[in-house]
Amino acid sequence: xxxxxxxxxxxxxxxxxxxxxxxxxxxxxxxxxxxxxxxxxxxxxxxxxxxxxxxxxxxxxxxxxxxxxxxxxxxxxxxxxxxxxxxxxxxxxxxxxxxxxxxxxxxxxxxxxxxxxxxxxxxxxxxxxxxxxx
Length: 134
Prior knowledge:
The protein has helices spanning 34-48, 50-61, 70-83, 88-120. By secondary structure, it is an all-alpha fold.
């Protein structure tokens, strides 16, 4: 019969896990394995992050997307969540990326329009030729 882990839980009860061969603790409590456990937890967290899952989903959708594609992508995400093939957290990450993409596209377009107007008004540098009204 395997030896039990000698670690006590917070309530004072024994762990109940089987001790590793030649050791007093199970894998979860062996102090010599603490760094290995932390590394595994970190890697597991990285693999389960919303950003990582969203990146995987985007990879299946395609490399080049336009703002016009976003409504169809978001609808597909909604159906995927409903059918259980996409986690809600993944869909939320995709929606956040889409929202950011639309916002950035709008801001870049506005900057380009302002620059074109400044060129048309003969202003080679932004801000030149604009007077403050007192």
